[in-house]
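Example pasted here:
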Amino acid sequence: MAEKLDINADGSLTIYIQAESTGEDKEANWLPSPQAGFFLMMRMYQPEEKMLSGEYTIPPLTSV
């Protein structure tokens, strides 16, 4: 298991949420999920004011 996430060259972060391994090169950013459906939730601890006011837009989820 990797100790650090792999950050993309542009500074963004890609997290892979899936049941099967993404392969050794992407495993640092892999969150194993069940084979069947699951509920994805985002928690923000000590959010900044722009998150509370609705000014911040959560980046979209994409399927690859």
Notes: The two ends are 23 Å apart (CA to CA).
